[in-house]
Structure formats: structure tokens, C-alpha cells
Amino acid sequence: MSLKNNKRIIKIRRKLDVLDNRLLNIIKIRTGLVNKILQNKTSKNQIVDNSRIKIILRNIKKKSLRKKIDVKLTQRIWKQMIKAYIDFEYRKFKKK
Hints:
Helix content: over 70%
Structural class: mainly alpha
Order of helices and strands: HHH
Strand content: under 5%
Distance between the termini: 55 Å
Number of helices: 3
Largest sheet: none
């Protein structure tokens, strides 16, 4: 039986699609907050805050362990998200 015709997989994929939509809504809210922070930055050298990044990643690691989520997975996701938002801030800062 092909994966496309497996009813259990189809049902699980629908749940993933619903979850993806929720994540998109959260990303929209997060982006709005990042924009508010960016409005308070006066120079590009304020965009990357390495001490803040370390704190975020340390907190994500602790929370992942507590919630029994693969730490390597969450660290990779957050590092990529931070990198994406840094890029976003540099692009938006030019337009200020």
C-alpha cells in the first residue's frame, strides 16, 4: 500500500497541517513583536545580541529537557529561527 492511500497517515498529516497553521499564527505574532523591538534600535550593531541569544538557547535546552523533547532538534530549530529573524531585522532596518 502506498503512503498516499494509508488512511492513518492521511489523518496524521491533516493534524500536522492544522498545527502548521497554528505555528504560522504564532510566527505572525512573534514577527510583530520583533518589529516593535526593531523600532527601538538606532543602529545595525544593535541587531545581534549574542548574550541574549545564549540565554534563549540555554532556556530552550532546559525547557526541552523538562518536556522530554529532543534537545538537538529544538536547538537547531531555534538557531535557524534566530538566524532568520536577524536577517529579517537587517532587511527591515535598511527601510527605516
